[in-house]
Amino acid sequence: MAVGAQLVIALAADRGGPFGTLLSWLKPGERVASRAQPTRRRRRQFALGRLAARAALASEAEIEAGPGGAPCVLGTGRVSIAHSGRLAVAAAWRASACRRFGVDLEKVRASEVGVSEYAFSRSERNLIASAGRSSGLSAWVAKEAAWKAMRLPPSAGPQAARIRALDLRRGSAVVHARSGERTVRFRVSLRRIAGPDGTYLLALAEERR
Amino acid sequence: MTRTEIFDAIKGNIQKIIEGAKGKEILETNSMRDFGADSLEMVEVVSRSVKQLKIKVPRTELSKAKNLKDLVDLFEKAAQAQPVVAK
User: Can you say whether residue A24 is alpha, beta or left, with left for phi > 0 and alpha for psi between -120 and 50 degrees?
Assistant: First the structure.
C-alpha cells in the first residue's frame, strides 16, 4: 500500500506454516538473527517483519539490525518494522524524504497500560481517560511509533515520547518526542486492521515540520 | 518487605503476562527479553508489580533496569524508602 508519494506500507501475516518455509525467504544474516531470537513466537515474528520490510522496500537487500536492534538497510531506503501476534508491518521511505517515520502494531486485547504510571505521565493518563474505551492501547501504539521513528535507545524509556492529543474518532494522535534539547512533533494515524487471528491496532507516526 | 517477596511478585507477573515465560524457571540474571517479551508486556509487568507492592519508583530509574536483578534492587530501595504507617 503506497501512502503518499514517499511512503509504502506492507503487511505480512503468519498463516502457521513450517518455520523453515518462512526462513527460506530470508537472507543468510537474517536467518541467523531470526534463529537467535529467544522464543518460537519471536523467531517467527522476526522473520515475518523482515518479509514485510522487503516487500515495503521493494528490494532484495539484506536488512541488518542497527544500534538498539532498529532495522538498517544499505542505500537510499529507510524502514521501520513492528510485529505482534501473527502479524508484521513495515513502513519504507526514501532517505530524501528528510523526515522521520515509525510504525507500531499491537493485537487488540485487554490491557491496563492506559492507567500505568510508568507508561504515561499524569497529563497523558488524563487524556487517555477522556478519550474513551480501549484508548490506553491506542495511546501506547501511538507513543511507540513516535519512539521508534526517533530511534531512541531502550534506556530513554516511555517518558521520552509524550502523547499531546488523542482523537480515537478520527484515528489520530499528536506525540512530542525529545531529541537532546529539541522537541520533534509527530502526527500519528491509528487504524484497526484485521489479522489472521483477530483485530490489530496499527500506528504510523510521521514527523511534522 | 523482603527481597524474596519482591522477586516473587515480579516473577508471578512475568508468568501471567509473558507467554514465553510460562512454566520456565526465572532467575534474577534473566531479562524479560529472554522470554520473548515485547515492550508492552514489559511495561505491564513493571506497572502491575509496582501496584501490587504498593511502592513508588521514578520512571527514569525504571527505564535503566537491564535485568530482573536491577528491577529487584530498585524496588527494594523504593520499599525501604516508603514511610512506615503504624496501625
Answer: alpha
Per-residue pLDDT of chain A (209 residues; tens, 9 = 90+): 666 558 999 999 999 999 999 999 999 999 999 999 999 999 999 999 999 999 999 888 888 887 777 788 777 789 999 999 999 999 999 888 788 999 999 999 999 999 999 999 999 999 999 998 779 999 999 999 999 999 888 788 899 999 999 999 999 999 999 878 889 999 999 999 999 999 999 999 999 98
Residue type at A143 in one-letter notation: K
Question: Is any Cβ of chain B less than 8 angstroms from the Cβ of A34?
Answer: no
Does A72 contact chain B (CB < 8 Å)?
no
Task: Give how far A5 is from chain B: nearest CA, Å.
Answer: 31
- Residues from chain B that touch A116, judged by Cβ atoms under 8 A, are 43-44, 46-47
H or E, element range at B9: helix B3-17
| Predicted TM-score (pTM) of this structure | 0.92
